[in-house]
What we know:
Blueprint (H helix, E strand, L loop, with lengths): L1 H19 L13 H19 L1 H6 L2 H14 L13 H9 L1 H6 L3 H15 L8 E2 L9 E3 L3 E6 L19 E7 L6 E6 L1 H11 L6 H12 L7 H14 L3 E5 L2
Antiparallel strand pairs: 1-6, 2-6, 3-4, 4-5
Amino acid sequence: MEALVKTFKVQQAFASAIRQEKVFKNKLSRPEALDHYRRMVFNVAEDAINAAYPLTRKLLSTSEWSQLVKDFYRSGEMQSPQIWRMPEALIAFVEKHYLPFQRKYPFLLELMQFEWAEVAVYMMPDIGLDIKLNGDADKGNVVLNPEMELMHFNFPVHLKPAGTISVNDRSNFFVSLHRHPESGKVLFTNLSPLTAQMIALLKAGVQMDLTALVKLSCESLKIKYKTDFLPQALGFINQSIQNQLILGFASA
Length: 252
């Protein structure tokens, strides 16, 4: 056990030396390779971060992005053993340490959350479901794609180029992200408050006919139910079946 603890401490010290460019006090068989390790590890981390946040990278200036990535890398807050998941911690890092960026770009955290959601949805494990392709949307029993995420934003980060968003755009926005079961692409659907609530209920496992679903959604939103909502809701369900946000109908 003592040997394992000692080995772990050496590994931590080596990782810190690589990440923060500190002197590594332990003897190395090839000390001249340390700089190569530093460049290699940083390049892997930088590539993963760049791939996860292309819109944020485009929004920030070159110097802002470069400094952010370096500070994040040196902080040691990338704790995930999975390379693809390491960039997720950048959101919390910016929220905690980069207040000037948040004042300059008030929608920055939402933009990053949106970008990371695309990565997370793409990497979700496949979930097999027993469904049938034909059914009556009016009667309910629709099956929501489990590889999806429902999000609410105060800024239209999914609708406008980040560089054109301003404080005047602040409102309530809803969007779903789902992975198409055949193409594997992550698709975005802009939602109204009503359709967002319908998706939230379906995601929670609620099964009922369309009229009841719309009425319950209105009740949740504290808005008056109108029969005019039904054609809109049916159109949304049919569209969602086409783009596979809704996969089909429950088999039982």
